[in-house]
Amino acid sequence: MNSQSQFNPVLPRALKPGDTLGIVAPASPFDRDLFDAGLRVLKSMNFNLVIPGAIFDQNGYLAGSDQHRADLLNDLFADSDIDGIICARGGYGATRILPLLDVDAIACHPKVFVGFSDITVLLDFLVQRCRMVAFHGPTVTTLGKADPSTRDRLLLALSKPAPLSLTSASNQVIQSGITAGRFFCGNLTLFCHLTGTPFQPDFSGGILLIEDQGEAPYRIDRMLTQMMQAGCFDGLAGLALGAFTDCGSADEVHQIVADRLGGLNCPILAGFDVGHETVNMTLPVGLPVQLDTDSGTLTFAGPAVR
Question: Is the pTM value of this prediction over 0.90?
Fold first, then answer.
């Protein structure tokens, strides 16, 4: 029996028109024009927005001190008037606040939480420490320029208590098969940087989707090699690849993955519209999912919200 088999995540409540989203900046400062464009998208979805003035604080490349950013996130989870939380931006800095987050208080107030890129570490924290479903999806600053399908998928994922699925856009099979396990999703660089820390994820028995941006092929190789040698992929049930933007050609990335991780003897499927592109499809992290290379799909076993 693997370490995932007894995991039963708490589902957040489905959002409805008129619900209130809190905006948080747990990592870097953000561009105000992109932020305002994203806010207009969220308002068009009929959400009320709470924007703490403190999210505009800056401390160099961080949106305020570590304690400041952690307190904002802890407070939004504890606030019963906040129905869901979406991150303003990724960037850098979320890893720094992990020791400052209140696990028990957050776990007592499960709610929709959305972000990607640097927010990967927070999604994993919520899933593995707080035992709740979190959402890998767009941030406020990416929503304004996002493809309409990205916006539609975000609203669907957060508001409809029905099982989700996603089909690979290219259906590029690196290693064939059908498998199932708990779903993990995020940025390869961030997962790599958690290696050897108290927050290192446990992917055993799980399905992992990775994406990245601006990493040279040799750095993709280096990160996969480090994680493999550290045992991060031991017992992995399946691997999916999202977008690797400005990381060399897709064929080169796929070849590196096949070379480094083919020995895992698990299904590996590339081509999912997840990551740093205008199409970034929201997916629930922490739920059981089936990966099928024959149909080219990720199919979740149940709804992501209740």
Answer: yes
Q: Minimal CA–CA distance to 246: which of 280, 221, 276, 205?
A: 276
Ordered by where they begin, the domains of the chain are 20-162 (3.40.50.10740), 164-303 (3.50.30.60)
Active-site annotation holder among 136, 159, 211, 215: 211
Active-site residue flag, 117: yes
* 131: exposed, middle or buried (Cβ count in 10 Å: 0-12, 13-18, 19+): middle
Which residue in 136, 193, 254, 276 is the catalytic one? 276
Which of 28, 117, 159, 204 is an active site residue?
117
Antiparallel, parallel or unpaired: β 163-167 and 134-136 = unpaired
Residue 254 annotated among the catalytic residues of the structure: no
pLDDT tens string 263-287: 999 999 999 999 999 999 999 999 9
277 flagged as catalytic: no
Mean of pLDDT values over 34-52: 98
Per-residue pLDDT band for 6 (boundaries 50, 70, 90) equals low
Give me the DSSP letters along 9-65. PBPPPPP-TT-EEEEE-SSS---HHHHHHHHHHHHHTT-EEE--GGGG--BTTBSS-
